[in-house]
Recover the amino acids of this structure.
């Protein structure tokens, strides 16, 4: 089974249902499949080795994803915000690709490409009246469907290879086919080079839920589109939700039923504010990695409400967990030697399941016995709720002691007036690394670094107290919401 | 033949196709419309058996089918007139317990 089967199933269930809606056009499932088939024919005629998408989000994105699947070549969404040198290096990994890019990003596409088209021109060609035959090719389940490059916040970007079987396992394992009500609509507002954008296209098509696509993000445009298109479901990264909650305009979202968030840790104040402001919305915390074909653990709406209302501290803490593993996914916490650890103790998060790829371009498989080491730190509680404690690579080694930034960040985020924070290790002659923190104030708040240091010292102890706390207006983040720790260390004089 | 997870099986009496989601039933015989289902790769597209009227309740697109013991789970990717059975015992539609949408 491959991605094209999902499309055929959706077309067989209800080909006239609107699959895609943008501000100017709507495509039924049948029209969507026809466009993808014509796109595949173009790829096969050009003998393209891959389909690269290097542009903002738009209706060409989901069509391109399926065109590549139908043609049996990888779909490669690239981050159009990268610098020219980085893009040139990534494009060099895909000689002979068919490149969809808007004019301002076309320069690095260069002579290696078999064709360069703008997304809109490409889509206009595909929506022409010529008949659309299904290609004679059927991709193998083990072949690569999508290549997504990791953000490279901790190391050089790696190309994650997602096979048809990984993505299909995720979709059929977690989504009820044609399970959506006819009125349901999902807003796609994460960047197209994020795994959540790929999975949103697949799962909403499979569920029979109309997909609405937001181009460039602004809080006002997001809110306006949710109201106008009567959006019922959306997945956001924390930065998006924080910016919406800070918008001074009309923040009402009467149609919204489910808001999923993930991609980076959610500041508690942001989610608690959203819970208060939108009591009719069900919140879903989704934890996953590119390497695991998106979500592997979910904290659902009922879990949120129960934890939010709980008096018991262990239950209350679950509001900041990522919930429990989804069907077909196993989670283990292991120590540095790979031995499993019991509930309550921290270690590295390992994951196994059919949706887990763990394979990188040009590298051996990252899996052992099917188990993938996420290099995320965390623990499971007695009821099986998973808590994520940050990246192993972010661990600060002060003297001989390993210190997890998340523990200190949690304390800082509980202090009045703190909107956001990051704790990093800065190279230090005496300690190897010293602990420094950056905090950002909530609007109108004044922060005193010495009071914040005293609060950490009281809650933890001296060795975990930041040597210095800087107050900045905002933290540098990637547009998928991950904090740029390396830039912060550099700015702090590391 | 013991089907592997992810393999697509086809009916020899109609258009029915299923994908194996779970299989721990060893060499149990899976039938559609009373005739053994075959790996899609081994289906020549012409060989047709007769639909057994005892196994003609049909399948529904996108539904999961399972046995009472839960040893197999099949996802119907193409529906047909024949119904599914494992060693002669009809498979039932698995009740959906949907996850909250996370995409």
């Amino acid at each position: 089974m491959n991605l094209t089967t999902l499309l055929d199933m959706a077309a067989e269930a209800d080909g006239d249902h609107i699959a895609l809606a943008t501000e100017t056009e709507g495509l039924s499932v049948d029209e969507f499949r026809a466009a993808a088939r014509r796109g595949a024919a173009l790829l096969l005629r050009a003998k393209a080795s891959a389909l690269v998408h290097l542009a903002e989000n738009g209706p060409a994105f989901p069509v391109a994803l399926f065109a590549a699947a139908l043609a049996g070549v990888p779909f490669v969404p690239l981050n159009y915000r990268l610098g020219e040198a980085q893009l040139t290096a990534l494009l060099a990994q895909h000689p002979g690709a068919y490149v969809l890019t808007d004019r301002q990003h076309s320069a690095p596409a260069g002579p290696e490409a078999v064709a360069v088209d703008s997304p809109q021109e490409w889509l206009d060609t595909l929506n022409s009246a010529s008949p659309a035959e299904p290609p004679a090719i059927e991709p193998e389940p083990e072949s690569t469907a999508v290549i997504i490059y990791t953000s490279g916040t901790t190391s050089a970007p790696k190309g994650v290879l997602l096979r048809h079987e990984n993505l299909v396992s995720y979709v059929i394992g977690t989504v009820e086919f044609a399970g959506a009500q006819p009125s349901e609509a999902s807003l796609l507002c994460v960047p197209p080079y994020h795994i959540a954008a790929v999975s949103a296209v697949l799962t909403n098509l499979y569920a029979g839920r109309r997909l609405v696509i937001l181009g460039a993000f602004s809080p006002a445009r997001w809110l306006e589109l949710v109201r106008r298109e009567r959006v019922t479901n959306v997945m956001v990264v924390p930065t998006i939700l924080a910016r919406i909650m800070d918008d001074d305009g009309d923040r009402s979202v009467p149609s919204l039923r489910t808001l999923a968030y993930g991609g980076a840790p959610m500041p508690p104040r942001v989610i608690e504010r959203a819970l208060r402001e939108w009591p009719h919305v069900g919140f879903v915390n989704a934890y996953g990695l590119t390497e695991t074909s998106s979500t592997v653990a979910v904290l659902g709406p009922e879990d949120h409400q129960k934890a939010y209302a709980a008096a018991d501290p262990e239950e209350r803490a679950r509001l900041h967990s990522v919930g429990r593993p989804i069907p077909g996914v196993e989670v283990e916490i292991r120590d540095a030697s790979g031995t499993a650890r019991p509930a309550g103790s921290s270690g590295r998060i390992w994951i196994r399941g059919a949706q887990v790829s763990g394979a990188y371009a040009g590298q051996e498989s990252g899996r052992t016995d099917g188990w993938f080491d996420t290099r995320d730190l965390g623990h499971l509680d007695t009821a099986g709720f998973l808590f994520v404690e940050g990246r192993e690579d972010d661990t600060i080694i002060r003297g001989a002691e390993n210190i997890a930034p998340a523990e200190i960040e949690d304390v800082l985020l509980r202090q009045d007036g703190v909107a956001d924070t990051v704790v990093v290790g800065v190279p230090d002659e005496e300690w190897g690394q010293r602990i420094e923190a950056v905090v950002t104030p909530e609007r109108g708040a004044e922060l005193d670094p010495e009071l914040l240091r005293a609060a950490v010292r009281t809650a933890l102890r001296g060795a975990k107290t930041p040597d210095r706390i800087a107050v900045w207006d905002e933290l540098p983040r990637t547009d998928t919401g991950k904090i740029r720790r390396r830039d912060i260390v550099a700015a702090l004089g590391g | 033949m013991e089907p592997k997870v992810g393999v697509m099986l086809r009916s020899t009496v109609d258009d029915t196709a299923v994908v194996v989601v779970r299989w721990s039933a060893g060499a149990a015989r899976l039938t559609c419309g009373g005739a053994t289902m075959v790996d899609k790769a081994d289906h020549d597209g012409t060989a047709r058996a007769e639909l057994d009227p005892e196994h003609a309740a049909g399948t529904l697109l996108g539904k999961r089918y399972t046995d009472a013991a839960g040893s197999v789970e099949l996802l119907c990717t193409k529906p047909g007139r024949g119904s599914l059975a494992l060693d002669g015992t009809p498979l039932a539609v698995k009740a959906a317990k949907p996850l909250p949408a996370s995409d």
